């Protein structure tokens, strides 16, 4: 009897862990994809990036800095190991995204329906969820 209960408990725990890992990778890859595309767009000064930076009052070279940080941050998030670096990347993404939202608020640049503020806050939320769901191998 104890063996059956033990096996059922093991199966439930395994399914919960598997679900948590799937949720972690889904959120992390969604966040990583968005940041990688954004970082590459900033490095290439593609699309409305130049106009956006000028509207906020920042110098154009900030695109290169932010683009490099985003690309390197995504690489650090998805490669195995380096749990302390991953902690720093999550903190950096949080500050980057909340800073972007605040920059838009202070520049009175809300975009259509507040999109310029809502999008970075969504990325900050995805970052928090990714951090909260990370497996033990990615924790300090």
What does this structure look like?
79% of the residues lie in helices and 0% in strands. The chain has one domain. The protein is elongated, with a radius of gyration of 19 Å. It contains 5 helices and no strands. α1 packs antiparallel against α5 and α4 runs antiparallel to α5. The longest helix is centred in the N-terminal third of the chain and has 42 residues. With 140 residues, it is an all-alpha fold.
Helices and strands, in N-to-C order? HHHHH
Number of helices: 5
Q: How helical, in percent, are the residues? A: over 70%
Instruction: Using the alpha-carbon principal axes, give the shape.
Output: elongated
Keywords:
single chain, 140 residues, 5 helices, mainly alpha
Write the layout of secondary structure elements.
Elements: H1 2-43, H2 49-56, H3 62-78, H4 83-106, H5 115-133
Helix pairs in contact: 1-3, 1-5, 3-4, 4-5
Short description:
The protein has 140 residues and is mainly alpha-helical.
């Amino acid at each position: 009897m104890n063996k059956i209960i033990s096996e059922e408990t093991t199966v439930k725990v395994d399914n919960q862990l598997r679900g948590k890992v799937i949720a972690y990778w889904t959120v992390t890859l969604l966040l990583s994809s968005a940041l990688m595309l954004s970082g590459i767009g900033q490095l290439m000064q593609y699309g409305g990036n130049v106009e956006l930076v000028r509207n906020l009052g920042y110098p154009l070279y900030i695109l290169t800095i932010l683009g490099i940080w985003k690309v390197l941050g995504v690489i650090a998030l998805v490669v195995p190991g380096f749990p302390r670096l991953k902690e720093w990347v999550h903190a950096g993404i949080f500050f980057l995204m909340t800073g972007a939202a605040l920059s838009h608020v202070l520049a009175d640049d809300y975009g259509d329906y507040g999109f310029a503020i809502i999008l970075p806050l969504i990325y900050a939320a995805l970052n928090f969820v990714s951090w909260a769901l990370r497996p033990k191998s990615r924790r300090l």
